[in-house]
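Appendix B, record 7
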Amino acid sequence: MQSVYSVQAFGQSKLIPAARPARLKVTAAARKKLRVAPRGAPPPPAPVRFDIPAPSPPPPTWSSPPPPSYTPPPPPPPSYAPPSPSYTPPTPFSPEPPLSVASPLRRGACGHPLQRVVPPVLPTVYVYDHCPYCVRVRLALGLKNVKHNVVYMMNDDVDTPTQMLGKKIAPILEIPGPNGVVMGESMDIVRFFDDNPAYGPTGIIRPPSGRKDISAWQKSVKPTLALLHRPRYMLAGLPEFSQRDSRDYFISGHQLPPYEKAVWKAELSAAEKQRKYDEAYARTAELLPELNQALVQLEQLIYSQDCCTEGGVCMDDIDLWARLRSITLVKGAKFGPKTMAYLQNMADLADCTLYFSMAC
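Structure tokens (predicted):
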């Protein structure tokens, strides 16, 4: 059918046939070049498709986050029971700072707050650990809070004290230097330190009180204490008895009741002396009641934990505490509460340990 156009001019319409569009002529060479299928040729076949599955994602690595659906497992239950609400953690340990010349001091004798005295040249005391005369000096130095050196001599060491003082004796004080000091006799050494302002406040140890009751008590228990102390000195592992020669030397020269020293040395053999020491130790069960009864009496004689005599520390304490210390070596000795407090307080001031841990 031929297309027509309607044209209106001057109020009249007229149909004019439309012109046929020109046809594009494509030559065979152009068709071949443009790959245009000839007219009337069948359509080209559809391309062949293969359904290849999509590649699976790589496995997750340690650095890969878990998938959105991942849920971590619950934590295992605790293997311990939580503390109860009433639990109070222990106070952490805080060591006491070292004392120096300028540091505030522990409480000393007679209530005096003594500062640590560190002399430019430290005094040295040569002692036996068990010896009450040596303990007197160590107690006085502790009360004065004087830093010093302690040298334990072997009990059979004769040369050291003889070279220093001409005879076997203890304790010995030595202060080296141009104006050095070498001194024996325990009470003389105690007075030397207490009267010398170079070693802190003077006069903190009062003179002896002259009490007869304490001296009478010491005299009454002397035989019992000799039977209890001396065998135990051989068993406790004290430094001066660390070798058999030292123990044999002590036994040969220290008699047991009822022997006098001259008879002990002249008439008993070494084997007999050793047997007497063994027999004395075996009598502990018999001797303990006597000792404990004496300690009950002593409880009434001690004034307080700070001093045995009213008025403050005096020479009574220097002698009494030095002797009481050896009783702590006797297992089964029963000290009254006041006596025990006195022992421990003076041991702290003296910086001189008691024997409770090695009692036998």
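Remarks on this record: The first strand starts at residue 4 and ends at 9. The CA atoms of residues 300 and 324 lie 15 Å apart.
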